[in-house]
Amino acid sequence: MATRDVEVVIGGKTIVVRAASPEEIIDLRHAVLRQGLPRQEAIFDGDELPTTRHSGAFTGGNGTAVGCATMLLNAWEGEPAWQLRGMATAPVIRGKGLGRLMLQHLEFGILDALPPAAPRLLWCNARVPAVGFYESLGWRVVSERFEIPTAGPHVKMVRRLDL
Q1: Would residue 1 count as lying in a domain?
Q2: Does 79 map to a domain?
């Protein structure tokens, strides 16, 4: 990913948003999104594909993961697209702008690294409490509310990246 690392100070701690490996973010993904389920449930099909992009937020750059997000190629209604999965922020740092930084890091990386004809459509299954966050970043709801048994109420959302 060509995108540079982003360093911020939140609550007196230096946090670095950078490209991450699945191994670096699985434990946070499990703790925040799949708590109470086997750790294996936090590992997604496609995590290891070379086209998949992972962004992580780490204390001190290589320390503890406090945020994560993944984009993987997955068509939306027959159109080539990127699916956002596994977006999570540690509760102690939630609401401080870290989610926005991780998404921007992923989006800029996609735009920088891929040819002009590459997919620019993003989509996700958003947890209902997070809808306002995504809407503030230009995403829009495109489905009725539905239930994911292990994760609660969701809606489908989409966004097109600007060229």
Answers
A1: no
A2: yes
Count CB neighbours of 94 within 10 A: 14
Its domain, for residue 150, covers 6-160
How does pLDDT run across 35-50, given as a tens digit for each residue? 899 999 999 999 999 9
> Each residue of 102-135: pLDDT tens digit?
999 998 887 776 666 677 899 999 999 999 999 9
Q: Is 24 among the domain residues? A: yes
Residue 20 falls inside a structural domain: yes
Residue 95, domain CATH: 3.40.630.30
Contacts of 35 (CB under 8 A, 6+ apart): none
Calpha distance 163→161 (Å, rounded)? 6
Q: Number of helices and strands (H, E) in the chain?
A: 3, 9
Domain count, the chain: 1
Query: CA-to-CA distance for 114 and 73, rounded, in angstroms?
Result: 12
Cα three-residue angle 85-91-94, rounded to 5 degrees: 75
CA 126 vs CA 52, 142, 145: distances in Å? 19, 11, 10
Q: Indicate yes or no: pTM above 0.85.
A: yes
